[in-house]
Design brief:
about 150 residues, mainly alpha, extended
C-alpha cells in the first residue's frame, strides 16, 4: 500500500486511504484510478474479452504523481489527529512520503523495515494480548456445550 497505492493516487490520497483503512465502493475506486473499469454481468467473460487488448500496468515502474503539498499536509494532520497513541500511522505516513524520494525497491525495503520494527513494539504486543484475551474470555470452563 505505501508504494503501489501512492503511484496510483498520489501522496495525499494514499495517506488518507492507508491511515483510514476504509473500504471503498467500486465507483470510488474507479474514480481514484485503483481499478481500470467496473462491469456488470459475467465478469469472467468480460475479463476474457478484454484481456488481449489490455496492457499490464507495472506499478513498480510508475512515478509518484506530483501532488499539492498543502493537501499532503492536511491529510497528514487529519491522520495523526485520529491516531493518538498509534505509532503505525506516523510510520505509514513517513514511508508513503518517502516513496517520492527513492525507487520502488528501496521503498519496499523501507516499508518492510518499518513493519518489522512496529511488529515488535509494545503497542503491537499489547494488541496481540488483547485479541487473545478477548477470545479466551468467552471460554468459561465447565460451560462447553451449554445452551444460552
Amino acid at each position: 500500500g505505501t508504494q503501489r497505492l501512492v503511484r496510483l493516487v498520489g501522496v495525499a490520497q494514499a495517506i488518507a486511504l492507508v491511515c483510514e483503512g476504509r473500504v471503498l465502493k467500486a465507483g470510488e475506486a474507479l474514480e481514484l484510478g485503483l481499478v481500470d473499469d467496473v462491469v456488470e454481468g459475467d465478469l469472467l467473460a468480460e475479463a476474457i474479452a478484454r484481456a488481449p487488448s489490455v496492457a499490464k500496468r507495472r506499478l513498480s515502474e510508475m512515478p509518484v504523481p506530483a501532488g499539492d503539498i498543502g493537501e499532503e499536509e492536511a491529510a497528514t494532520a487529519k491522520a495523526l489527529k485520529g491516531a493518538k497513541g498509534v505509532p503505525a500511522i506516523a510510520e505509514a505516513i513517513r514511508v508513503i512520503r518517502g516513496a517520492r524520494d527513492g525507487d520502488f525497491a528501496s521503498g519496499l525495503a523501507t516499508e518492510r523495515a518499518a513493519f518489522l520494527a512496529l511488529r515488535e513494539s509494545p503497542e503491537a504486543r499489547a494488541l496481540r494480548h488483547l485479541f487473545l484475551a478477548e477470545r479466551e474470555a468467552v471460554k468459561v470452563p465447565g460451560l462447553e456445550g451449554a445452551k444460552a
